Amino acid sequence: MKFSLVVYSAPYSSQSATTALHFAQQLLIQGHEIYRLFFFGDGVHNANKLAVVSQDETHIQQQWDKLITSNNIDSIVCVSSALKRGIIDLEESNRHELESVSLFDSSEIAGLGQLIDASINSDRLVNFG
Amino acid sequence: MNTTNSNTNITLLARSAPYGSDAAKLCLDISIAAAVFEQTVTYIFLDDGVYQVLNNQDSSAINSKALGKGLEALSLYGIEKLYADEDSLRERNLSLNQLLPQVELVSAEAIKIFISQSKSVMTL
User: Fold this and answer.
1) Is A35 on the interface with B (CB under 8 A)?
2) Which of A3, A121, A108 has the alpha carbon at shortest distance from B3?
3) Nearest to B10 by CA among B114, B83, B82
4) pTM
5) Would strands A124-128 and A108-110 be described as parallel, antiparallel, or unpaired?
6) Is A13 at the interface with chain B, CB within 8 A?
7) Closest by Cβ to B4, choosing from A8, A114, A121
8) Calpha distance B122→B124 (Å, rounded)
9) Which DSSP string corresponds to A19-59?
10) What's the mean pLDDT when you consider all of chain A?
11) CA neighbours within 13 Å on the CB side: how many for B47?
12) Which of A10, A86, A92, B43 is the most buried (most CB within 10 A)?
């Protein structure tokens, strides 16, 4: 079955970001397809590559990146949520003359149209927030 | 962008109070995006979400845009009706005449049917 996941919650402050990660991992193990991950609101923090996590904790952002990269998953952070939370790709960093890039290369910045597209083209749209 | 032109039903369940978090605003943003992409939107307010459709909201004291105004403007995007769960209103001692003009009351049973007829449901 074709799934898309919408993640509204930030890692560490809410369990649901981790639940979403585990759900995504299990989907692939069980042979399902992930059409798209859509990070929205505080969920965009899951795609921040500048996080430093102590060694005895799970590095949730890195786990997402690993999952997305190794399975070539389409992963989107919502533009309006991301920019104001400092989740910035190279293009936005240059445009706004910022000093760094915080978004993992494995995710892309895009608009809410990608969420609606995911809703239309997936068999199941699962919300985590 | 590989958005298809197919028309589907999307149900939004707005369950959060209007100003304590950004959930209400995010839900409104989704409704507009869905309407722009020519989807049929069923926008249902339940639990504390019914406070989002109160008439005459004034949020100037908290430097926030009034959510009610944004919801009223949805008719411009073809979302003519908003639905409020009658049980949630009763529990909060609210009545229809305190709500935005385009709000209709719905029962839990009617909400069940809306959900079952939807391609997808998003809850915020």
Assistant:
1) no
2) A121
3) B114
4) 0.93
5) unpaired
6) no
7) A121
8) 7
9) HHHHHHHHHHHTT-EEEEEEE-GGGGGGGBTT----TTS--
10) 97
11) 9
12) B43
User: Between B23, B33, B121, which is nearest A116 by CB?
Assistant: B33
- Domain boundaries in chain A? 2-128
**How high is the pLDDT of residue B5?**
60
Four-way CATH pick for A2-128: 2.60.40.1120, 3.40.50.980, 3.40.1260.10, 3.50.50.60: 3.40.1260.10
A118 flagged as catalytic: no
**Searching chain B, which residue's CA lies closest to the CA of residue A118?**
B3
- Report the CATH number of the B9-123 domain: 3.40.1260.10
* Angstrom distance (rounded) from CA B46 to CA B89: 8
- Nearest CA to B114 among B43, B53, B51? B43
B65 close contact with A: CB closer than 8 A = no
Cα first-last separation, chain B? 25
Per-residue pLDDT tens over the stretch B45-96: 999 999 999 999 999 999 888 899 999 999 999 999 999 999 999 999 999 9
Q: What burial class does residue B15 get, using C-beta atoms within 10 Å of its C-beta: 0-12 exposed, 13-18 middle, 19+ buried? A: buried
